[in-house]
Amino acid sequence: MKQRFRQFMQGRYGLDQLYVGMLVLYFILLFFSRWFMPELMTGLMTLVIILAVFRMFSKNIVVRQRENAVYLRVVNGMKHTGKKLLQRIKDIPTKRYRKCPNCAVTLRLPRKRGRHKTTCPKCHTSFEVKIRM
Question: Across the strands, what pairs with 116?
Fold first, then answer.
């Protein structure tokens, strides 16, 4: 039986991170389908499962790899943004973030009340920063 399944899957795409993401989306939709528009959620869940199974058994491997690469780029971008936001929240007691007026790079400055002169490390522009508590 295992050999037959292995033979059937030969040349097919199989599982990847997008497949796992689609399953997570399915279970999120399943959770919310109890309270919000159950008919619509059921339709979306069916569509997600059909698409996931289609991708798994597809023989067009190059296209499936491209789809997975796009998915990973989006997810990794969201993770990076989330990490930066979390770091900014953790830094609230000790740091302040300001943008350079010349090159728009975000600078992490110590939290000292008053007006301070600072220099951008990227473009070396000096500018004045006002920090309030």
Answer: 129
pLDDT at 82: 95
Taking the C-alpha atoms of residue 102 and residue 131, their distance in angstroms, rounded to an integer, is: 19
Residue with tokens 């010349």: 102
**pLDDT score, position 14:** 75
102 token code pair:
């010349």
Q: Give residue 116's pLDDT.
A: 84
Distances (CA, A) of 86 to 25, 89, 90: 24, 5, 6
Q: For the chain, what is the largest distance between any 2 Cα atoms, rounded to a whole number of angstroms?
A: 75
Q: Please report, to the nearest 10 degrees, the dihedral formed by the alpha carbons of residues 19, 25, 27, 31 taken in order.
A: 180
Q: List Cα–Cα distances, 8 to 13, 50, 60, 79, 103, in angstroms.
A: 11, 19, 15, 36, 56
Per run of 10 residues, the mean pLDDT along the chain (length 133 residues) is 77 82 90 86 90 87 90 95 93 88 87 87 87 77
Place of tokens 């619509």: 40
SS3 1: coil
Q: Which residues contact 103 (CB under 8 A, 6 or more apart)?
A: 120, 122, 123, 125
